[in-house]
Every structure is written in structure tokens, then in C-alpha cells.
Amino acid sequence: MQAPSVGGVMLPRGNGETVRLSRGASLTDFAEKINANPASLVAVMMNLGEMVTATQSVSDETLQILAGEMNYTVQIVSPEEEDRELLESFDIEFGEDEGGEEFLVARPPVVTVMGHVDHGKTRLLDAIRKTNVVAGEAGGITQHIGAYQVSTEVNEEERRITFIDTPGHEAFTAMRARGAKSTDIAILVVAANDGVMPQTIEALNHAKAADVPIVVAVNKIDVEGADPTKVRGQLTEYGLVAEEYGGDTMFVDISAKQGLNIENLLEAVVLTADAALDLRANPEQDAQGIAIESHLDRGRGAVSTVLVQRGTLRIGDTMVVGDAYGRVRAMLDDKGNNVEEATPSTPVLVLGLTNVPGAGDNFLVVDEDRTARQIAEKRAARERNAAFAKRTRRVSLEDLDKVLKAGEVQQLNLIIKGDASGSVEALESSLLQLDVGEEVDIRVLHRGVGAVTESDIDLATGSDAIVIGFNVRAAGRATQMAEREGVDVRYYSVIYQAIEEIEAALKGMLKPEYEEVELGTAEIREVFRSSKLGNIAGVLIRSGEVRRNTKARLIRDGKVVAENLNIEGLRRFKDDVTEIREGFEGGINLGNFNDIKVDDVIATYEMREKPRG
Ligand code: GDP
What we know:
InterPro entries: EF-G-like_DII, IF2_II, IF2_N, P-loop_NTPase, Small_GTP-bd, T_Tr_GTP-bd_dom, TF_IF2_bacterial-like, TIF_IF2. Residues 106-277 form the Tr-type G domain. This is Translation initiation factor IF-2. GTP binds at residues 115-122, 165-169, 219-222. It is found in: Cytoplasm. There is one protein chain. The protein is an alpha+beta fold. The chain has five domains: 2-77, no CATH class; 108-278, Rossmann fold (3-Layer(aba) Sandwich), CATH 3.40.50.300; 288-385, Elongation Factor Tu (Ef-tu), domain 3 (Beta Barrel), CATH 2.40.30.10; 409-509, Translation initiation factor IF- 2, domain 3 (Rossmann fold); 513-610, Elongation Factor Tu (Ef-tu), domain 3. Strands 26, 27, 28, 29, 30, 31, 32, 33 and 34 form a nine-stranded antiparallel β-sheet that branches. The protein has a six-stranded mixed β-sheet with strand order 7-8-6-9-10-11, with helices on both faces. β10 (214-219), α8 (228-236) and β11 (251-253) form a beta-alpha-beta unit. α1 packs across α2, α12 packs parallel to α15 (495-509) and α13 (454-463) runs parallel beside α14 (478-485). The structure holds guanosine-5'-diphosphate.
């Protein structure tokens, strides 16, 4: 059978077999799997009308189309699956409780507070924290570690609830997008004076998609014009029907400001958990869970708040968190107390990691330091590879000009962070005043005082922006994230240096302008006729130099009589030469052009890129 071809390119051809590729793989990765030449896959893509380089990371869809064309089936492996396989290779299973039913013990629910902006999420989290000083608990100063645990009495029983202390569904969604399920129950906060708003619906949809039961906190009932009944009516349309109307969603009217009915809300959370969920975990196994929030602490190094989901985490345990690892040196609870161990659903701040993990990274305790290191290193390597694949697609100052020439961007997006609002504004206005011609726009997407954060990098990633840090550095995982996403982050401490560098990059970014530069003139002294070459001009070089393969025009009596000629042949005596300088004689052949006369002048020139001033 003849090998199939597309446009003359021989195709590797499969028999429908399945090829596993990680998300964001390149044609080279694909070629490796099927033992083909990457160039042939590039050619196939070209024939399908897509220009793709061999090492560029391509979309799932592109991989599928390419595979279909060659009669393979592609199975895209998500990063989560890859990670599961990595852990399996160490004989570790993540996400399942070890042992059977008999090992499972009840654990507190983990709650996220969501809702429209300004409806009182932050205020509610504060109110819950305050109303709930566990009796007899040694009260240190409350620490913001990203999560806290409170206790409440329900049916004369003490029950605990863990709250994730970052309001809003962004954190929730970001974690879920990474396959980390952190939340058991969502409290949906709706201000009774404002009613259901767009982000209320958004939050509701996120909770539903994650299959997380919802308790509705109808807030701000102290405000005049508050209409809790209306909120119940509105939410009915979205499938949340209050218990008192025959539905199964608990609605609690509260005032976060006045601390009204907070206990009732906590009770509703516990009752909802009891009714809808079976929250149990094995506390006896090696601890597993997720990282909620992490940062680099000046005195303590990398610190990370982790939520234990199963097992018990103890001081001295060896743990891997994302691509960080280490031995637990110390643990602090949300009151700043040192603790020896943390059981399921307990958040603790962990000290002793090699570096700062990301929000939503999973953590697990392993038996040996070596295993922890190997898992962390493999994950880091995978991230680097993914970053490498992605990097080529982002804009950086170095490649601005290339990207622009390719017509990919016409505007430079910037995010400016600085140490003081004065310096940020000064930098912004100077940058906006840069005169860079009409082809390129500078747009400042975001400015602010403070460190370069993960959310800055997020924004830059989504809009191909360059981040400028003036007298500030990156915080938390921003640096790793920027590396992973290929975002160019530039740090400056002198304003004019920042301006100079951006200006220079922008000048490269502009489409080049060309100008004509005269190279030399030659006066025709004699015309030789050659049967083979046509007319040859015997010349004296009057100025500059004449070079072979440059452009020329012919001037007769001070007037241009022919344009766009080529110096095709150049000779001195019998030798072909590449150039003849001023004051020397030689022969010039203008190719097909034969209309030359004695005393004509041949002026040669070339087009040069004009430097921008
Ligand atoms: P978030 O954006 O959802 O976190 O909302 P905040 O917690 O920041 O609250 C927004 C504003 O509403 C703040 O000025 C709060 O003080 C106010 N607020 C929150 N809860 C109540 C409440 O129960 N009653 C009143 N009157 N104001 C409240």
C-alpha cells in the first residue's frame, strides 16, 4: 500500500491507535510518541492551513485534528491525571481515605462564603470569627492564616465548622479549576436591601457546578428597606427554594454588622451538612489535603496554610505540597497557638517547606524525605516544561518587535506596580507620553501600590501585558506564576531607566522604516559590446564605492533615465570583484539593460532601516 500524502508530504499513518499526550503538548511531543519526524507533522498542519512550529505548545483541538488526519486517536492527559500517575508511580494514592468504613470518623464541614461584591462577605467572616470564642480556649491574637475554625452548639452538642477566610468565588473557582475540592458547603450572602445581583448568580452557579450545598445568608436586615422575603422569591427562580416554602435550602436572616443571628447561621450550616453530606475521614492515616494560602515570611521562610482533609498532620512529618517539600518544623493554628497535630478539616500554618506552594496545590505526607523530594522535583520539572511551551506565546520586551512585525499586537499592555502612588503615577504619565509613532499604543491596564501579586500576573497572562515593578518585588507565588505563564516582569528603581528600556523596546516594536543610502557613483568612460553579456560600461568610480548586487539608477545630463537597475557584474581588469572604490576603474554589467552612453553616471544605493530618533 502506498503511504498517504498531503500535498506531497508523506504522512505518518496510524491504525487508529491511541496516543496519550499531556495538555499543551507540541508537535515534537506528538512525533516522538508515534516515531515520526516532527517536520512531517509541521507540514501536515501547514496543509491543514495552520502554521505551527514543531516545539510550540498547541491546543487540544489542534492535536485532535492532526491525529484524525493521520488516523490516530489522541487522549489528552490533564495535569491532574498526570499528577495522579506520578503519585501512583510512588505507590501513593491521593484523595481517597485508606481502609474501610470502620476507619472513618466525622469531621467538621469546610465552608466558603460567596456572593455579590459589597453584600457583606468580609464583614460576615469577621462577625463569625468574633462571636465565636471557643469557651476555655487559650486565646492568642487571632491570626489571618487563610482559614479558621469556630465551634457552635447544635442540639446540645459542640460542633465545629471550618471557614475558608478568603471571600469570593474567585478563590473557590481557582482551586476547583485545579481539581482541588476544598469546600463542603457554600454560604451565599445576599444583601436584603439589594437583592439578587449578577455575582450572586455567578456564585450560585459555581456552587451548583461543584455540587456543593448552599446555605443562604440574607444579610443587612438592619438596613431600612431590607426585604428578606423578596430575596427568597428571587432565588426561587434559580432553584433555591427556602425550607419554609417547602424547599430544602436553609435561609437565615442576619446582620453581619450587628452580629445578629450569626449563631443561627452556623446552626443552619451544621444541619445542612448533616442532612446533605456524609462528612467523614480517616484520621489515622498519613495526612493529605490542600494548600489554601502561602507566602514567604521574612523570619520564618516559606509558610503555608494547609487544610487537612484526611489523616493527621504532625510535627516532624515529611510532606510534599505542590512542588515544595520539607519536614514540618512547627504548626500554628488560627489563634497563633503552637500545635502538635492537626486532624481532618483543621487548617494550620506549616513551617519548614523548601519553597512557597500555590493555592490549591495538594499536600501529602510521605514516609521518606527522598520520596518527597523526588515528587516535588518531578512536579517542578513538569511545570517548567509547561512554562517553556507557553512562554513563546507571550509578549516580552525582547521580542516586542518580532511580535509586532508578525502583526500579533499593535499595542503594548502594561501593568505598573510601585512603592508609592506618586512614583506609580509619575511612571505611568511618562510612559504614556512616550512618542512612539502611530502604529503602537501604550495601554496601562492596571496600576497600584504594592508588590507584584499573583492577580497582577493573572491579568498579564490574560491580556499579554508586561508587568513593571518600581521599587517593589513579587509577592507570594507571583514569580513562579510569571515564569510558568511566561509573563515578562521587569523591576526598576530609577524611573528614567524604566522609560528608556520601554522606549527602546517600543522602537524595535515599530515597523522598520527604510531610507535610501547612496553607496557610490560611477562615470561611464567607454561602452564595450559583448555578444554574451550585452553592453558593458567601462567606468571610473567618482565617489564612494560600487558593489555588486546593489541597486542602481542611470543618470544622463543630470536626469534619471532608468531606475531599479542592478549591478549584476563587476570587473577589474579580467577579474570578477565584489566592489570597486573611488578613484579606480572597472567594468559594470547592468544585466539586461543596455541603453548606456559615455558620460552617463551610474549611481548605486541600498535601502537601510532607518534608526528612530
Ligand atoms: P464584601 O464585598 O461582600 O466582602 O462586603 P463587605 O463585607 O466589605 O461589606 C460591604 C459594606 O457593607 C461594608 O461597608 C460593610 O460594613 C457593610 N455591611 C456588611 N454587612 C452589613 C450589615 O449587616 N448591615 C449593614 N448595615 N451594613 C453591612
